[in-house]
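Long-time lurker, first post. I've been practising inverse folding by hand and with some scripts of my own, and I keep getting stuck on stretches where the structure tokens seem ambiguous. Below is the full token string for one chain I'm working on. Before anyone asks, I'm not after the true native sequence, just a reasonable design that respects the backbone. If someone could post their per-position residues I'd love to compare against what I wrote down in my notebook.
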């Protein structure tokens, strides 16, 4: 059995589906009641779990658990706090750090050695460069300002605690350093410093469907190393199977995808012959940085190689998933919860 904590989130749903397809029994936890129903339809067993309450872990099985995938947490994209007026640092620590400790203690007490969680790619934000693939050994170098700062601090702390459990208690904890993850579900609107915004990718898609012009601000050759959600789910599956999985892993496509190529792919896939015109606006400020990560460690330790390394492939599958209708309740549940 694999326990997926935070399974009703975006990455969790795809991960549960992948594990079930590979024959695993899955126990899923999450707060989204609509998605709990969907996961149960897939074949997962579902329960509620408050990771902030160590006593709540008594609900979980004590035998027969191969691994725990920890996806529950507080993210800036879901946080409604405007930190220029209020402060939610304590919330990040309670959920992302103390919650992780509760998970690790449950595993330690029940001889579950393998725990895999996620981390922020922004822990090395000040080292991002175009064309320079950063390895896991890159020293932490992040920003101490903005609505992501304490989130990064909390994930760094959780990673350190996981490594403590590795060395002190002989566990096999690992964390995936995730960049933006693309796929059906989370890319319509997000919170940015407590305010709700339509995302850039959703704006591109909406304009492409209508055949309207799409503006590219700043340098059109800004490149990002993103990953498709199905590759993340595949990585969790392969990491669980390997006895070498341990520590921090870059979990990206390992490919530079330019802003211009992203827009062209969206127009081709979602434009349906309307052919939106690209308007280049170099005078407009674009704070998106270029970044690239090395994927050698994941390839070496659990033979992971991303399938979706081109943006056009991601968008083709993205549209296919949308058109299938099978994620309608997922998308509706997210918008309802906002």
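-- Answer (accepted) --
I ran through it position by position. Result:
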């Amino acid at each position: 059995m694999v326990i997926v904590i935070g399974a009703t989130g975006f990455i969790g749903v795809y991960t549960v589906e992948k594990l079930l397809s590979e024959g695993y029994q899955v126990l899923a936890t999450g707060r989204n009641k609509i998605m709990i129903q969907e996961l149960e339809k897939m074949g997962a067993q579902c329960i509620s779990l408050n990771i902030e309450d160590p006593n709540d872990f008594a609900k979980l099985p004590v035998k027969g658990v191969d691994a725990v995938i920890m996806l529950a947490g507080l993210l800036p994209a879901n946080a409604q706090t405007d930190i220029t007026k209020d402060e939610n640092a304590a919330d990040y620590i309670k959920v992302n750090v103390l919650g992780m400790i509760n998970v690790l203690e449950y595993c330690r007490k029940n001889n579950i050695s393998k725990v895999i969680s996620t981390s922020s790619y922004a822990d090395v934000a000040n080292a991002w460069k175009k064309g320079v693939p950063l390895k896991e050994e890159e020293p932490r170098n992040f920003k101490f300002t903005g609505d992501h700062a304490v989130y990064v601090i909390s994930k760094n702390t959780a990673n350190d605690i996981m490594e403590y459990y590795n060395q002190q208690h002989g566990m096999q904890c690992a964390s995936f350093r995730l960049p933006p993850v693309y796929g059906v579900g989370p890319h319509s609107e997000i919170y940015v410093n407590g305010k709700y915004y339509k995302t850039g990718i959703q704006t591109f898609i909406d304009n492409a469907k209508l055949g309207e012009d799409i503006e590219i601000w700043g340098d059109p050759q800004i490149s990002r190393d993103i990953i498709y959600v199905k590759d993340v789910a595949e990585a969790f599956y392969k990491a669980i199977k390997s006895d070498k999985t341990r520590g921090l892993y870059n979990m990206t496509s390992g490919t530079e995808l330019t802003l211009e190529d992203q827009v062209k792919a969206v127009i081709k896939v979602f434009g349906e012959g309307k052919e939106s015109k690209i308007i280049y606006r170099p005078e407009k400020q674009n704070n998106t940085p270029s970044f690239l990560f090395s994927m050698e460690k994941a390839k070496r330790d659990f033979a992971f190689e991303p399938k979706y390394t081109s943006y056009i492939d991601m968008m083709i599958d993205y549209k296919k998933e949308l058109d299938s209708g099978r994620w309608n309740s997922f998308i509706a549940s997210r918008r309802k919860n906002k």
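A couple of notes from the structure itself: The chain has one domain: 2-337. The chain has ten helices and 17 strands. Happy to go over any region you disagree with.
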